[in-house]
Amino acid sequence: MNDNFYFVHRSLAGNGAITVRVTSLTDGAFPNQGAGSVAAQPWAKAGIMLKDGTQAGSAYAAVLATPGHGVRMQYDFTHDTPGLPGAVSSSSPRWLRLVRSGDTITGYDSADGSHWATIGTATLAGLPSSVQAGLFVASPQALRGGNETFTQASARFDDVGLQGGWSPGAWGQCEVGASLLGGGIADGCAQPSSHGIQPGSVTESDGTFAVTGTGDVSPYVPAVDILGGVFKGTLAGLVALLALGAVFVTSEYRRGMTRTTFAGTPRRGRVILAKTIVIGAVAFAVGLAGAAIALAIALLAGRIFLPGNGFTAAHGFLPLSITHGPTLRAGLGSVLYLVLVALLSLGVAAAVRDTAVGIAIVGGLMYVLPAVIGLALDPAWQHRVLRVTPMSAGLTIQSTTSLGKLPIAPWPAIGVLAAWTAAALLIGWLLLRLRDA
To answer: CA dihedral defined by 398, 400, 401, 402, rounded to 10 degrees?
Structure first.
């Protein structure tokens, strides 16, 4: 789970309620971008929370506003109920309320502070008599240049109303928690530097609170690359196509049919072109069928199985769509990748005239070279070398998450493989012309 946010809180003993008006909330933006920067995180959150202490991972219930998804009531990291739609602004504020009665927490919202609607009710079994409650702001990480980067949201609260057994005195300030993987032990209220997260802040003037914060309160949903994982299955056909590309050339040498072929077609360039067209067509058909099956599996998983196991839009996970750019790129790119590898093998085999040697060379480029690079070079040099090697194409063209961690972008990687394939076919053609049959 994720449980890190900036918390402005006080103790509540027994039953009670907190009401607040949210008059502004910025989209979670990248820190230090300056005014007018592009919005980065529509799932930034600002609202009121009741929590079993300040220990990260402890039970909570919250009513919150978001820039892109309206008001929500969320509790215990997995429950999410929508309230009023629309974004918060000075001309369209949102009033939020949490009411505690024993272990039952009820959330309300209002557009005018007079007419209230119930969003939902949470039962937090075993909630202690004394809890911490107050204002909070969080803003999840977002992609910037292909890398996940902290974002920070800002919100303004006023008309804070408290009912019940609230502690007297000043509000406490707290940077709660860090990301919790598998329910591990977490710190309590800590200094921001102890977690390495962007620090939050609060200022108060005449009952108006200006709060900034980063982080998220949600299930821990890893970057699931459904497409990349499923499309890796299409590479099972890679070895077969690699071998087919080599055999399609070398079988004639092995059987002594090369002279017959060249006698019927003296222009050897036409022979290599014809073989290229045939192998390319076969690889395209095989790749298209495999990509279609893989895409169907990925769409099924993304729309049926994963949403039922916590991977929902409320937590930043979007269902796959055939019209989605990365989906199309992974599917079409996988087909093109298989075609290029088959043609690479054909070109190498035409140059070496031996099935085993041709397969060994291309197999070494695709499978052995990455392992050697990983063992022999430091990470910085690994990225440099992998940018110009042919095997990066399959890894990158099928990836849909964490692209900034890859050595090269998807389509440029296909371009690199295409250059290797063109060079192999050119060398194979030249040697075919220069040597005896």
So the answer is: 60
CA atoms within 13 A on the CB side of 278: 13
DSSP 40: -
Question: DSSP string covering 102-163, please?
Answer: TTEEEEEEESSSSS-EEEEEEE-TT--SEEEEEEEEE---EEETTEEE--BEEEEEEEEEEE
Tell me which DSSP letter residue 156 carries. Answer: E
Res 123 pLDDT > 60: yes
Q: Which element (helix H / strand E) includes 417?
A: helix 410-434
Which string of DSSP letters, residue by residue, matches 246-297? Answer: HHHHHHHHHHT-HHHHHHH---HHHHHHHHHHHHHHHHHHHHHHHHHHHHHH
Domains annotated for the chain, with CATH where assigned, are 2-218 (2.60.120), 226-434 (no CATH)
- Answer yes or no: is pLDDT of 304 > 50: yes
Does pLDDT of 38 surpass 50?
no
Helix axis angle, 369-376 relative to 379-386, nearest 10°?
A: 150
3-class DSSP state of 53: coil
Q: Look at residue 147 in the predicted model and tell me its pLDDT.
A: 57
**Integer Cα distance of 78 and 220 in angstroms:** 10
Radius of gyration of the chain (CA): 30
Query: What is the average pLDDT score of the chain?
Result: 81
| Alpha carbon separation from 139 to 9, 27, 88, 155, 170 (Å, rounded) | 18, 8, 15, 11, 25
The first and second tokens of residue 354, run together, are 């031996």
Report whether pLDDT(226) > 70: no
From the number of C-beta atoms within 10 Å of its C-beta (0-12, 13-18, 19+), residue 425 rates as buried
**Residue where the block lists tokens 């911490």:** 132
In sequence order, what are the residues at sequence separation of 6 or more whose Cβ sits closer than 8 angstroms to the Cβ of residue 146? Answer: 402, 403, 404, 405, 406
